[in-house]
Amino acid sequence: MAPADWIRRHRIAAFFLLAYAISWSIEGAVTLAGMEPSWTTWFFEGFLSPLSPVVAAALVLSASGESVRGWLRDILKFRVHPKWYALAIGIPFVITYASGIASWALGGPVDWASFEFDPISIVIGIVLGTLIGGGQEELGWRGFAQPELQERYGAFRAAVIIGLLWGGWHLPQFVFPGGMRAEWPLALTVSYFVGIVAFSILLAWIYNGSGGSAFLAMLMHGTDN
Known about the structure:
- This protein has 225 residues and is mainly α.
- It has helices at 3-9, 11-32, 39-48, 52-63, 68-75, 82-105, 119-131, 138-153, 155-169, 172-175, 186-209, 214-224.
- Helix 8 packs across helix 9.
- The protein has one domain (3-224).
- One of its GO terms (biological process) is CAAX-box protein maturation.
């Protein structure tokens, strides 16, 4: 069976395999090269690696004989009800402040200075986070995988499946030598993976509620980052 035929028959499996292969290859190359943290390292791990889901989606669509340009036009919806913009930006702020308060209430260390509200820095951070700081992942996770999976499993279960596989996609950060999360304690690691599944559910809700706008999911992801 030709690779293109297999991809057409197993679109979701092909998508995740490609997303993992592309991202993990980039992360592995950085590790093998022994690159120290720098702007060059960020370019590979922080910009190119997060593009792997959209590249994977484009490859699957191309192998299936579908228009990548048409797909992007369909999922990059900007004209949606303003409430979805407010929710996409507001929910990550609520989560962040609630987490800080919960940590403080449980006796944990909280750097309240990091919670200072600087409008200009926040706007710049949201724009950068949405476009080049992780938000670009959503073109693949929500723009491709969510509608594909929810046709078979429904929106909620699809979001949980994506959340679990999305968490697995981050594994090099935990297991590769020098990974940005390699030194995390077990409790923090577990909470991260639980949180990413929960966030996947919220992103699916934003995506579906906004009429299938992957841009709103990008905005929410970028704001959270």
